[in-house]
């Protein structure tokens, strides 16, 4: 057993506090156990001479330690008037690691300077710096994206780093603290990206050399640690970008004039915007938050999936969230595609491919047997409250050629007998008075007040 009862493959307690400081564009306080580093990212228009005029940007890093970050007071480098070789080496490593995941062309002619200031050192300060610096960088880039200064995200992958080593007793271990590190036979810093590639490996067998087999063990330990670090980074980035903006909504106990809808479907988003606009409620959707990960729809019913989407996002962001799970139930296909409507023709969720597949499956089915229902389940979730679900359904018939240009998804194939047209031949306004979604929303309105006050 290691110090503090840690297992060989166990990280120290890792925390990342995003937006730790108010002035920088991006900042984070990262802790790997007792090692603590403040990381900031600053965006400036001025680029170094060697990239000027190329349209490309640059990422620099600076690293420093406070005098009492260590056991005994270390004289400030500013007082010595000289940057040490160690500092130089570490800040170059940090900058290289970050540049390995940034598309400098997409960044445009601007520089991002990342500052890593160690406030307490207990081993692994350079790996903590890289891991925290990435969060600060990402938060700063998000500001550029949100402000419209950038239209495309220049960050290709996430990057994180961890130390591994072989202790005196021959044990290979993850994330060494200072005492372990000082006595280690072999120590190594591993920098990896979220696609599982290495950005840099620095391994030194100073006290004892190491074999290729031992190297593989160390790399596997590093990979495990980095996977875990990336989860912490991800949560910090999401918290840093979204929580801030949405904080105002959280504190209200009553429904506010803004609602977050857990959908990434632009067609649904437009319909909800129109339907809620009449009530004076502004709609935000996940399209406004590209960094929120997709919620996997693992349920087998509309209700399960709607709850999954609403509750996951509500829990993560401590907000009231509405989600919609909808689909087409075709009688001749035993109710299919049903909950699988979005993925009917494959993972890419293409409306055109879905419609083509539906037509193909129904090739020999005569018009009177092409009956179907459009179904919509809405789930309303609020942290700590039992969720509310309602459903709406409308009957129709699947045509054999698409008709109409409006709407989205299966609209051009869904013919409504009583109206004599498809959903795609209706205006948005007309569709919104009679669609499955409109019906579900009506029920939601009825149930809403009681739910909120309960
Ligand atoms: O009014 C509609 N008119 C035409 N098609 C529709 C409609 N309502 C749902 N649909 C189709 C779109 C999608 O192929 C599937 C829903 O799948 P569903 O998982 O609920 O939505 P999605 O994945 O597109 O977006 P998200 O989960 O982010 O809300 O049914
Ligand atoms: Mg979906």
TrEMBL record:
Entry's Gene Ontology BP terms: nucleotide metabolic process; purine nucleoside triphosphate catabolic process; rRNA 3'-end processing; rRNA catabolic process; tRNA processing
Domain of life: Bacteria
Residues binding phosphate, per UniProt: 86, 124-126
Cofactor: how bound: Binds 1 Mg(2+) ion per subunit.
Active site: 325 (proton acceptor)
GO MF terms, alphabetically ordered: 3'-5'-RNA exonuclease activity; dITP diphosphatase activity; ITP diphosphatase activity; metal ion binding; nucleotide binding; ribonucleoside triphosphate phosphatase activity; tRNA binding; tRNA nucleotidyltransferase activity
Amino-acid positions noted as binding substrate in the UniProt annotation, renumbered to this chain: 263-268, 326, 408-411, 431, 436-437
Keyword tRNA-binding recorded: yes
Residues that hold Mg(2+) according to the record: 296, 325
Cofactor dependency: Mg(2+)
Protein family (similarity comment): Belongs to the RNase PH family. Belongs to the HAM1 NTPase family.
PANTHER family hit by this protein: EXOSOME COMPLEX COMPONENT (PTHR11953), EXOSOME COMPLEX COMPONENT RRP41 (PTHR11953:SF0)
Functional summary from the UniProt entry: Phosphorolytic 3'-5' exoribonuclease that plays an important role in tRNA 3'-end maturation. Removes nucleotide residues following the 3'-CCA terminus of tRNAs; can also add nucleotides to the ends of RNA molecules by using nucleoside diphosphates as substrates, but this may not be physiologically important. Probably plays a role in initiation of 16S rRNA degradation (leading to ribosome degradation) during starvation. Pyrophosphatase that catalyzes the hydrolysis of nucleoside triphosphates to their monophosphate derivatives, with a high preference for the non-canonical purine nucleotides XTP (xanthosine triphosphate), dITP (deoxyinosine triphosphate) and ITP. Seems to function as a house-cleaning enzyme that removes non-canonical purine nucleotides from the nucleotide pool, thus preventing their incorporation into DNA/RNA and avoiding chromosomal lesions.
Protein name: Multifunctional fusion protein
Gene from which this protein is expressed: rph
